Amino acid sequence: MSSAGGKRRSLLANAIESIGTTPAPAPTAPAAVLDTQEPAVREKPAEEIAAPSFLERRGIAFDEIARTVKRPTLRLKPSECSIWPGNARDYAALSYERCSSLIESIREEGTNREPVVVRRTPNGDHPYELIVGTRRHFSISWLHANNHSEIELVARIETLDDEGAFRLADLENREREDVTDLERARNYRHAAETYYNGVRTQMAERLAIPKQNLHNLLQLAELPDEVIDAFADPADLKVRHGMRLSPLLKDERYRDNIIAVALALCEEQRALKAAGQSRIEGSKVCERLAAAAQVPKAKPAARPRPTLTAPTGQELGQVLTDTKAKGITININPKGATSVDEILDALRPVIESAKFSRN
User: What is the pTM of this model?
Assistant: First the structure.
């Protein structure tokens, strides 16, 4: 058993203990007994109080055993369980390729070493509903469909409401690297609306996670389908991408541009896949989408150049530059027949008003 697996099982056990059980009633306060005694007895020093009797010590021992013993498990057929829709993992997206190592491990051992968690559903189409262990359930279902119907699903029954089931499933999924950020984000959005009435602070407290982490995940869940489809695989979409893109998409100035780029990226990804080429990785997709929000700076309008005009109104040329440091540059290019005197007459006022000639 790996240390990570052991840690996860310990966390799950603690979670089930806190979610699915009712705290034991508090023992009767010793003061209630002492109140019936004579004053001399009440003033007796603590160290002189009689030790617990044998029957009391045995009762305490039995209570400790009841709290530490492993809960019983039962063996089920996968077909006896429906899948609780509140789990983060997309059951429909599971495949042999995604679960191959687990399938082979269960085939070799003849069972799932770590029990799944189910709850009874007396009024459901199936007698049990699977809360934790969707990959194990899928793997044994796959084995049943491939000549290994003798392998059964080891399960532990718990009594949980939907909010408790969500917290338990979330605790396991945090330890699972194969649950995508998008799956978890969408699961959190559903939970926030369904179990916590949209109160994020309450949800963060119940899950014992920082409020900012919850906010970041919910931003990822807000991304529109067009943006999600721009990524080659939903697993490429990370929390950091949602943190960058969600604020831009909320700005009406950028949203349409980003959606247009997302649609173009989606077509590009399909073409690359059809050609057998490597598709665009997630970080580059995010960069291109974010770049769509860059509004190009408008170029300042070019100032009209002063013209060199004859007294008759005919344009003789243009003043290209006029600076005190570099002087004046004039382009003379008459549009029609013009005498030299007319050009010189037109030049005089321009030269007199030039910057280099001003004091």
Answer: 0.62
Among residues 126, 15, 32, 118, the alpha carbon closest in space to that of 75 is found at 118
Which residue's structure tokens are 């089930």? 16
Residue tagged 């979330």 (tokens): 170
Total number of residues shown for the chain:
359
User: With contact defined as beta carbons under 8 Å apart, do 346 and 319 qualify?
Assistant: no
How far apart are the C-alpha atoms of 204 and 215, rounded to whole Å? 9
List average pLDDT for each run of 10 residues in the chain, which is 359 residues long.
51 56 41 39 48 61 52 89 90 91 94 93 91 94 95 93 92 79 93 94 93 95 95 94 95 94 95 93 95 74 74 78 79 80 79 70
Residue 285 C-beta-side C-alpha neighbours within 13 Å:
28
Rounded Cα distance, 139 and 146, in Å: 11
pLDDT given for residue 62 in this prediction: 53
Query: How many Å is the Cα radius of gyration of the chain?
Result: 38
Reference 135, options 94, 86, 181; nearest CA is 94
Please tell me the distance from the alpha carbon of residue 210 to that of residue 203, in angstroms, as a whole number: 10
With contact defined as beta carbons under 8 Å apart, do 290 and 248 qualify? yes
Q: Which of 301, 288, 281 is nearest to 237 (CA)?
A: 281
**CA geometry: angle 117, 122, 126, nearest 5 deg:** 65
Q: Supply the DSSP string of 97-117, one letter for each residue.
A: HHHHHHHHHHHHHSS-SSPEE
Domains parsed from the chain with CATH numbers = 1-20+56-179 (3.90.1530.10), 222-295 (no CATH), 307-334+342-357 (no CATH)
Nearest to 315 by CA among 342, 335, 331, 339: 335
